[in-house]
Amino acid sequence: MKIIAVAGTKNTGKTTLVTLLVSEMVKRGFKVGTVKHTHVKLDVHGKDTWKHRDAGAEIVVGAGGEETFFIINRNMGLEELLNKTEQLCKIDFLVLEGYKSGNYAKIFTSSINDPFSLAQVDVRQLNQESIEKLADLVEERSFGKLANLNCGDCGYENCREMALAMIKGQIEEDVCVMKKESDVILKVNGNRVPLNPFINKFFKNTFLGMINSLKIKEHGKPQKIELQIQNDEISDN
């Protein structure tokens, strides 16, 4: 899942640009999601879902027709939102409206100096050709979640420097060693934990060896193995 943010000052056409980008990316055959950052409450006072929350519910789920929505009584940070989005839906691109402080590729609708800027545009001047060029840029230079391990195996001092090189088109995302090692996925509390190549292979070989010793022929050849460990011990260490 690649991430692109549309940011800018108020009333400069951010939502318009998001919808234009989403339409173009969908037209190209990609699955696209969006996240809108706002400073106001999303649930409407007096509605049934608001009444549920007002009564003390920690999470409210609305389901009906062709849609489902979740309301949680806290503000999630960007990285947690990215993790939850990946869990809920498999998409190719996630378009953020806002989040100008994130270290991801951005298109600005106003003049802002930011090293992660792919472009600055005047939404009023956009036409189909310019939208297509922006979409090309998003395809070529946006990237997915950063591992933030700062391992240096990519040749850069840290993940931020690697991301800046991707923004400039100097390297592609597969230079990140963590991106290449994706056959083992470790999640803690629902959040994915990046694994370096050594740990990746260690986990894979160890668990495959254990699985092969079990009598699981009736389940067929193991292609996808899931192990869930419930840890109820609370520790401050």
UniProtKB/TrEMBL annotation:
Coiled coil: none annotated. Residues 133-193 form the 4Fe-4S domain. GO terms for biological process: Mo-molybdopterin cofactor biosynthetic process. Keywords: 4Fe-4S, Iron, Iron-sulfur, Metal-binding. SUPFAM superfamilies: P-loop containing nucleoside triphosphate hydrolases. PROSITE patterns: 4FE4S. This is Molybdopterin-guanine dinucleotide biosynthesis protein B. It comes from Methanobacterium formicicum.
